[in-house]
């Protein structure tokens, strides 16, 4: 029973459909902002917990910094303010008063406050107080917070005015140590995307014109959505001494000389959920990888006659007790017994739309035979959609089944990514012809639609205008460079650098 | 080695001292806001995790609602906006532009946005979309978020312009069900304060003039600080149909009639950390209850000669491996091995100032004898401060020791609370004389300083002015009413209601 719009019908509408049918989020009456509903927020909580563990196991500590940044703090780093000035929410008053029968902003602030679009400016100020000597370094902190960027074309999860994220901020005694940190956290993002979200990514460096405002280098993980567009899933920035100079984060080094520290910052946001949707969801709705599913297994009782209820309930309770001992991925299983007063068919479809990895339907016949009906979400459109297995087999195999589902989801997405990076587009003419097409859904296991091109780039100043004209972007300069000579796909000039070209979210 | 200011010297300065010496938080350059540092944030994470489990186990689900609330939403509930209008951060512009060489707010919004001081107004709007039929009720949601109230006299943890909290919001089909929810969550707060924070509280209802703006009834948990002042630790509001009418949360009931829903809201914040400090900290610094200590046990190696290092490290590693299996309170132990390059004495004092419940000092002599030096934070000023125990005894008793420390901390605070509620002040004259004194530190195990008075209140309209004159407040109307007749301590009129009078934070 497909959604109102399938991926083929209308990809952007399908995306909205998936979210609303899975009840993950909705547009709010607060313009450009979203309400993240329990199923969407549950996914975020899982992502947060997994990555928080990584943050802590790599010696970072969580803090919380003010959301309001005095305007003057932004004046200190020119590139930084240029990059964000156009999309800043500005607090100018601290009360409301009645004026002519109308509630009106009152008590104007001496200095306007910016609602953080990112926290380098305010955290650098703290670092400047904390760091005096090389003994105080490194400083390794992180915060989970809301941030605001005044998006003019908001889209659930991908681009909303307010969103949730984590932002790591570190300060180091040497450039080398800071660069290592930047790359380590990029690797942590790759691992998060691939191993937890089952979302394969390309890793690399951003070209100069795509860098974070104020950074020396920006590294990124880029995923391919089912319509061949790229999604920037996470970024890690080497900030050099730019913010340290702006905020005076200086320290006395081992040679007893004063020096500016080297800082980094890195972040991933609720945008990842948009990436998960467009990596895994299908025409029936959402599909959540088991590692981040709020419920990995949902049990739907099927009670056809009232007199069956006691027996079915008893049987289910026994199974629940046994399943609770199971530890897929080495963790407590997340199990839901759906006892609501609705039909089992409605419940099945609801959990299918939400993308619960495994649904167990259990009725009188199953109770009598010691069996269960098991439905794997990722197999819903295949002949193996339903399987009746014994209770023993269920208990014995459920953990490995969830682990296999996670692997299968990654493998399928990885195959799509790999087979849709064109490397045979080698002339500017072919390149133009390729990107003259618009992005469409890439059917599972297929190639041929517009997606990524890996090819040469000269780094010429004309690039930006040409990219704009073609409505494409350079996603990254991959770490694995071939080193061969070739022709820049934008300008036709000789070029050596391999880049990934694509349209993007 | 006491702090610069003891509780007796200067109680407010002692409070600031405890926070800065424990490195829990500091004032930020963002006016009125604080930076919560790792040790403070770690305590908050523990409180959050414990209460989040409670929220979920009582069928509430986490969501996230926008932080920006359109101004017009506040106009819908008159009392609500009156209560908060004086302390609202107002966003009026969405970008910065250069004007006359100065960064200036630009692009004025059509409608100003309020940074949430609390979220009833915006959540009620969502509820109005979600609730159509009695089948959609109850709605039980919670969010962990930052909120802003424009405090003019900010104070770390107790009163900052931005703070962190959880806010639960629910909608029900009947007043009775909503009232039950309100009281259940109040009970959850009592449990959180007493069983997790080891902070005893009084529970009751707020008098009319202390209610949450827009509520029908506000219930609260009130704690007593070491200077006899009260701290409102959490509140739970029965909102009746006030917000439902304002935002049109209506539903078709079982009788097929349209009706407004009944809503509740309830919250606790980072203010609880201020309460924990003023309940448990002493003249040596912070004391953290084991249940919320980021580290329950800290191991400090004592290496006097370089040649001892290997043996001591080996011995410590064996102990760490054994201790990791211990599960105080039925949870994984939180253990820190402090390997930093500092003196063991400095480390001991640092962890003492931070209030780690148990510090283990382990050196060569201990390694040779199979012993450890154990220091319990709460005993630091007693002859039992240090004890040398065998490794076996340590392993066998550490979990129960931490559990006993938690209990002892609660018992001590409970004794202070109980013995400092005066019930023998029965005339307005004595009452005035009592509160003519100013609040001072109540030495452990002592009474006689200004603290709480439990006595009669007539509910007379003059009360507010009299309370202001005496600079005191009615903290709550306790649930356990005696029902006897008596004299109102404010007005001298006949009165039946028992209330708790106190100064407060």
pLDDT averaged over residues of chain A: 97
Rg estimate of chain A, integer Å: 26 Å
Discrete helix count of chain A: 14
**CATH architecture label name of the largest domain in chain A:** 2-Layer Sandwich
**Helix content class of chain A:** 25-40%
Strand tally of chain A is 25
What can be said about the biggest beta sheet of chain A? Answer: 11 strands, mixed
Strand content of chain A: 25-35%
- End-to-end separation of chain A in angstroms reads 28 Å
Quaternary structure annotation: homodimer
CATH fold category name of the largest domain in chain A = BirA Bifunctional Protein, domain 2
The biggest chain-chain interface is:
A-B, 61 and 61 residues
Order of strands across the widest beta sheet of chain A? 3-7-8-14-11-10-9-22-25-21-20
Main CATH class of the largest domain in chain A: Alpha Beta
Question: What coarse outline of chain A follows from CA principal-axis ratios?
Answer: globular
Describe the structure.
Two copies of one chain form a homodimer. The first copy, chain A, is an alpha+beta fold and 505 residues long. Chain A folds into three domains: 11-70 and 116-280, BirA Bifunctional Protein, domain 2, CATH 3.30.930.10; 290-416, Rossmann fold (3-Layer(aba) Sandwich), CATH 3.40.50; 421-502, 2-Layer Sandwich (Translation Initiation Factor IF3). Helix content of chain A is 33%, strand content 29%. Chain A is built from 14 helices and 25 strands. The first copy, chain A, has an eleven-stranded mixed sheet, with helices on both faces. In chain A, strands 16-15-17-18-19 form a five-stranded mixed sheet, sandwiched between helices. The longest helix of chain A has 29 residues, at 391-419. Chain A is globular. Chain A starts with 10 loop residues before the first helix and ends with a strand. The model of chain A has no long low-confidence stretch (mean pLDDT 97).
